[in-house]
Amino acid sequence: MAKIRLFIDHPLAQGQGVALTPDQAHYLGSVMRQGPGDALLVFNGRDGEWLARIERLAKRGGDLVSLRQSAPQRNPPDLWLLFAPIKKARTDFIVEKAAEMGAARIVPVQTDHTNSERIRQDRLQAHAIEAAEQCGGTFVPEVAELTPLGRLLDGWDPARRILWADEALAGPAATLAALPRGPWAILIGPEGGWSESERARLGALAHVTRVSLGPRILRADTAAVASLALWQAALGDWG
Ligand code: SAH
């Protein structure tokens, strides 16, 4: 039984040849000790999961052929995660967990108290891909570039509601089941929390629902996972 799962940015169909990148060839050959004739599972985020066979493998490239679909494409509900990046390892953790928890899109936002001014979008995207490879998913959430919160709210489509986790509300946790279904975004603040001007702006928007995540103040990475779990259980695909 093939165990290796690889994300491949290439169309997949019966008998489709797939060229490997140097990184993928290195991973399969040198890291996983695979060779021609060996089987693996591949997915591209659109066409489901496919059983594939290695046709040729060299140091800097190689070819696969996709044989048959082994699982259908499964997309998460239309839920985005908006979060303020924190320290590198914890930001990596948030992206990995958001991909596992079924976020459809991940948007790092710059807030008044954001500790990090820069992110490596390509590294974060690679973490989302790795998470999908590990957890058996066929979908990879896109990681956006860092966007200032104000600009994000200026261009926001109010049809997508925002679930705003505000630590000032810490107390009995929100029950989300009564909220409307449809497109949502969860918004998690940085370790420094929300500023008063952010609270004023977010609090005035009709498409924003302010929620508590329970009586304890959670670190931002914990808050991201907890809110994704609450949302998936009440309004998403856990039910
Ligand atoms: N420095 C702040 C805590 C920030 S926690 C303080 O000491 O008050 C980081 C983020 O996690 C918050 O901005 C919020 O979005 C979320 N969060 C953590 N605990 C929460 C809670 N109990 N209820 C709602 N949101 C919470």
TrEMBL record:
Pfam hit, one: Methyltrans_RNA
EC number: 2.1.1.193
Keyword GTP-binding: no
GO MF annotation, one: rRNA (uridine-N3-)-methyltransferase activity
EC primary class: transferase
Known catalytic reactions: uridine(1498) in 16S rRNA + S-adenosyl-L-methionine = N(3)-methyluridine(1498) in 16S rRNA + S-adenosyl-L-homocysteine + H(+)
Annotated localization: Cytoplasm
Gene3D superfamilies (alphabetical): 3.40.1280.10, Hypothetical PUA domain-like, domain 1
UniProt keyword annotations, A-Z: Cytoplasm, Methyltransferase, rRNA processing, S-adenosyl-L-methionine, Transferase
Domain named Ribosomal RNA small subunit methyltransferase E PUA-like: residues: 20-60
CDD domains per record: RsmE-like
Biological process according to GO: rRNA base methylation
Main location: cytoplasm
Its job: Specifically methylates the N3 position of the uracil ring of uridine 1498 (m3U1498) in 16S rRNA. Acts on the fully assembled 30S ribosomal subunit.
Family recorded in the similarity comment: Belongs to the RNA methyltransferase RsmE family.
Protein name: Ribosomal RNA small subunit methyltransferase E
Species for this entry: Paracoccus yeei
